[in-house]
Hints:
By secondary structure, this protein is mainly α. It is built from 37 helices and 8 strands. Strand 7 (844-847) and strand 8 form a beta hairpin. The longest helix has 35 residues, at 98-132. The model is unreliable at 137-141, 189-222, 305-318, 459-470, 486-493 and 757-773 (pLDDT under 50).
Amino acid sequence: xxxxxxxxxxxxxxxxxxxxxxxxxxxxxxxxxxxxxxxxxxxxxxxxxxxxxxxxxxxxxxxxxxxxxxxxxxxxxxxxxxxxxxxxxxxxxxxxxxxxxxxxxxxxxxxxxxxxxxxxxxxxxxxxxxxxxxxxxxxxxxxxxxxxxxxxxxxxxxxxxxxxxxxxxxxxxxxxxxxxxxxxxxxxxxxxxxxxxxxxxxxxxxxxxxxxxxxxxxxxxxxxxxxxxxxxxxxxxxxxxxxxxxxxxxxxxxxxxxxxxxxxxxxxxxxxxxxxxxxxxxxxxxxxxxxxxxxxxxxxxxxxxxxxxxxxxxxxxxxxxxxxxxxxxxxxxxxxxxxxxxxxxxxxxxxxxxxxxxxxxxxxxxxxxxxxxxxxxxxxxxxxxxxxxxxxxxxxxxxxxxxxxxxxxxxxxxxxxxxxxxxxxxxxxxxxxxxxxxxxxxxxxxxxxxxxxxxxxxxxxxxxxxxxxxxxxxxxxxxxxxxxxxxxxxxxxxxxxxxxxxxxxxxxxxxxxxxxxxxxxxxxxxxxxxxxxxxxxxxxxxxxxxxxxxxxxxxxxxxxxxxxxxxxxxxxxxxxxxxxxxxxxxxxxxxxxxxxxxxxxxxxxxxxxxxxxxxxxxxxxxxxxxxxxxxxxxxxxxxxxxxxxxxxxxxxxxxxxxxxxxxxxxxxxxxxxxxxxxxxxxxxxxxxxxxxxxxxxxxxxxxxxxxxxxxxxxxxxxxxxxxxxxxxxxxxxxxxxxxxxxxxxxxxxxxxxxxxxxxxxxxxxxxxxxxxxxxxxxxxxxxxxxxxxxxxxxxxxxxxxxxxxxxxxxxxxxxxxxxxxxxxxxxxxxxxxxxxxxxxxxxxxxxxxxxxxxx
Length: 855
């Protein structure tokens, strides 16, 4: 029907508005739709198509706001207006927010669905007019094709502009609860984790998921998991229908990531002896990926690429040909797989890096955790995070005054082994090891502890409980075996084919690599070489080993040195035979001593001296020129023992003419058996202790001054040594007439000893402390101080002339002018140690890094 003039246009507009109102308020009755066509045609013919379209959409917007949007958001008002504590109570409710969300989505989707039908009625009227228009000029307005998209945009705009700030949080809670429920459901009703057994996982879980997660399956009975995924799919579909596509994907994505992170934390834990990465990857395929496959299939977004021609490439993960129970995955699922695996690698990596200190303490038992970390770092490439975090842990937990040097060295060795597994090139070991090496260089007992670790079978632990993995002797043995193999970097002994293979497998150094150090130096990580680099010079380590070996050999009560010979042979491989020549002579001295003892005893047994005690006497004969300086002390031994020494020396001179023996009477060990009225006691003691107690055979009581004169030692030394016998209950001490001259008496019965038990315990602790400080051989520091004494006058003369000098200047000046014998050949660290001694002796002062004479 067409009318002319303005009255006709007004009448058509009035009828259009009336029919629109009837259509909007029809409560499902769309009978007014067909009657719109002639009215719409008349208005379009008058050029009012855009006007009627805008009016129609504004009317729908007003109705949608009042009838749907306000009611929709009202459902969530109790949660949005509550406090943080009250929101926690909401989340605890079992069916929240599922009931509220599903009901609200159902109501608003019904309203939108009806309005879409109203929009379609107008679209059909517009299309009918356009089809009947001969010249089709009005098609330029394109009202029919843009009406539905504009309506969808209007709905989304209205919802997003009225969106409460807490609605994304509600969606997040919903998806977290649903996915957690799904995960528990798949773990089994008894709460056992099916992924704990890998074989069971492969046999049962995959098939279970195939039957449970196939939403579109034709099975007569729908399982709980299928119902659960279907309900989640309906919520996702409705949210996307309302224009919340991005928000919905963010919500269930964050829920999946949260569930994955929880699973990684659960599997990883604090047990580093079990590999975790494989279980996590299998769990990703068993739960999140199959859930996403089912969800995308339900939403119609999953299309299998049987041909595999999607061309999806990634530098991080190759696209798998198929997933268990899924077949050839779609591009969306492959992207999800890559995303979840990367997050799993990163999460596990961060967990292991955070606990790397504990992992290395437990190495090699924690090797599975190290292997997991290696794979994670290869995938993520975040090695710098490991370096920064581990160095921070070292500074706060290891490199402190409270940590013993032994513990630091053990941790350093374990760190080398662990990081050698993670990074065979040694680039990151350089960065991590530098703070440890710098700190150890400042400790005075570092060299001694390193040598102890080399020679002690317990790895340097005094309690003998060291791990074999921390024993440097084991590393020496391995290095000895490796010397028999062809060197990896010896390119002169490889053929052309192998050279090409090496060239094809070449990889550039990481960007963190030090350009001053070549790749060939990194590929071979020598643990002992790294330990020696702490000291700076192998000569210092060899000297310390020589002192400790001498101390050990002099305190031996037998000639069993097989382990020492084995250690020496291994050290010769690494340090060279010339460096260990003196140590070899020391061991040969013990071998010769054993043979000489046997010969002399055999010779003496054929003479009239049988039964004089030579059969229980053994002598260690050393070549003093090749041994470190021996600590000597005057000692008068009993006549009977002195006679044994004299007879032995005479026979030795006869056999080894013109060599003679010079006895070190204060060195060695003596085995004694003391018999009392009611008991018998056995001891293994030093010669000075034996000399003291043997004097009590002559008389039962001695004063300290008289006894000191009898054995030829100072009174102070006697009082310190005799406390050993008082602590063992053999002697008692009492104050004599002179307060400085105590009296010592033999304890004949046990009852007398119990009276002084408290005093004896104190004396025993004191004697143990004294024994720890005594040594048969001069230490490296004492030898250095003695050798450097000759340069003391040079140093004082330089400081007198120049006033003040830095350490480097003193060192260079000594090297320049002290060229005559003895020439100056000390290191900077040795000079610094000597100057520190002069400062302690108050001969020098140090100000602002320079040394000056003390006034």
